């Protein structure tokens, strides 16, 4: 445990130095919201030479956070970090984790620390995935939480397929309607400013950042493939994972959801290492107390921060995908828990 504390403090200092200004939150949430308050398009003008998209989120991701635009940029950095930490704690708590060692390993991992220090909205998605699992048998609640996740980041839409495959079809249809309705309502609320330019914004974002991602599409670009080739390969792998998830959905719901999340990550043109944290609630369901499966998570410390492997390299992407695959394989083992009455009787005997 002492070693874990030392590694954790080292991790905090390292990530704090790497992300001094919560750039993701300030550029993708606070920036567009600030522009809206000042009557501007949230995405700027893509027709300008050298245009760089600061945000490719739909308005449904930043419009609910419009009050943050009233704060200074320095204040937003502090507030976003103070918010994201408890959000990740809540994601583990709602799955039933009570072991402090699990919180330490999960929250001090590379993906989680980047979420907190960079203010990335993936932290909110992690909580919504945890709530989706907890409320999976409540159609209305499941539709709302997944619809909200889709409205923030569309790449999680495949999770509606998991609801469908597991027989929760009302929730699946409801999540699509909630997500679409939220996005449409937010576009309408800002007078559809930036809607015409939004496809260009997405295209520019893919062109700029696709090769930075440490997953299949980033790997293809790092190996010299074109944007289109990378997307085709990413979608092909995603379809295979989606099919595997469909086949075992009624047998192993947790493993099926892990496959669907992996498919969503591979299908997205731009995916970052923070996306791996979407699997942490599933790990918490499988192992609410510290056990061997959680030993995989500290490996992200080693390969992401303390490794000689350079950033934006094929080797880094390969190692990242290997660790992701290891998490998914662990989650394929079915979770079997005896009824509480049987456990009490067994202990009494």
Architecture overview:
- The protein has 349 residues and is mainly alpha-helical.
- It has one domain (2-38, 56-348).
- 64% of the residues lie in helices and 0% in strands.
- It has helices at 2-18, 23-37, 59-62, 73-93, 100-107, 110-118, 122-134, 139-152, 159-165, 169-189, 198-209, 216-222, 227-248, 253-267, 280-286, 299-304, 314-331, 340-348.
Topology, pairings included?
Blueprint: H1 2-18, H2 23-37, H3 59-62, H4 73-93, H5 100-107, H6 110-118, H7 122-134, H8 139-152, H9 159-165, H10 169-189, H11 198-209, H12 216-222, H13 227-248, H14 253-267, H15 280-286, H16 299-304, H17 314-331, H18 340-348
Helix pairs in contact: 1-6, 2-4, 4-6, 4-7, 7-8, 8-10, 9-10, 12-13, 12-17, 13-14, 14-17
Intertermini distance: 34 Å
How many helices in DSSP terms?
18
Can you tell me the overall shape?
globular
What is the H/E order?
A: HHHHHHHHHHHHHHHHHH
Strand tally: 0
Low-confidence stretches: 338-349
Tell me roughly what share of residues is in helical segments. Answer: 55-70%
Radius of gyration: 20 Å
Structural class by SSE content: mainly alpha
Mean pLDDT: 88
Structural domains: how many = 1
Percentage beta strand: under 5%
């Amino acid at each position: 445990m002492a070693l874990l504390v030392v590694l954790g403090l080292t991790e905090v200092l390292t990530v704090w130095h790497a992300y001094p200004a919560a750039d993701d939150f300030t550029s993708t949430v606070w920036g567009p919201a600030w522009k809206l308050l000042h009557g501007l398009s949230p995405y700027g003008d893509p027709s300008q030479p050298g245009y760089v998209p600061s945000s490719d989120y739909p308005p449904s991701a930043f419009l609910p956070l419009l009050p943050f635009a009233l704060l200074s940029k320095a204040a937003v950095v502090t507030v976003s970090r103070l918010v994201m930490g408890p959000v990740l704690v809540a994601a583990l708590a709602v799955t039933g984790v009570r072991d402090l060692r699990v919180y330490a390993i999960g929250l001090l991992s590379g993906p989680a620390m980047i979420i907190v220090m960079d203010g990335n909205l993936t932290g909110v998605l992690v909580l919504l995935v945890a709530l989706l699992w907890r409320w999976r048998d409540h159609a209305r609640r499941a539709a709302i939480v997944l619809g909200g996740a889709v409205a923030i980041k569309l790449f999680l839409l495949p999770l509606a397929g998991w609801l469908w495959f597991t027989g929760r079809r009302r929730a699946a249809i409801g999540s699509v309607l909630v997500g679409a309705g939220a996005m449409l309502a937010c576009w309408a609320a800002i007078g559809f400013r930036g809607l015409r330019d939004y496809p260009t914004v997405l295209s520019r974002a893919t062109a700029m950042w696709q090769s930075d991602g440490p997953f299949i599409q980033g790997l293809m670009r790092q190996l010299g493939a074109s944007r289109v080739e990378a997307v085709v390969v990413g979608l092909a792998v995603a379809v295979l994972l989606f099919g595997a998830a469909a086949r075992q959905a009624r047998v192993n719901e947790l493993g099926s959801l892990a496959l669907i999340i992996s498919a969503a990550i591979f299908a997205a043109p731009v995916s970052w290492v923070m996306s791996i944290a979407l699997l942490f609630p599933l790990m918490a369901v499988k192992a609410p107390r510290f056990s061997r499966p959680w030993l995989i998570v500290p490996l992200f410390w080693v390969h992401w921060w303390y490794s000689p492997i350079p950033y934006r390299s094929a080797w880094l992407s390969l190692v990242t995908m290997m660790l992701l695959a290891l998490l998914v394989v662990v989650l394929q083992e079915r979770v079997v828990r005896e009824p509480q009455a049987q456990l009490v009787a067994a202990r009494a005997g």
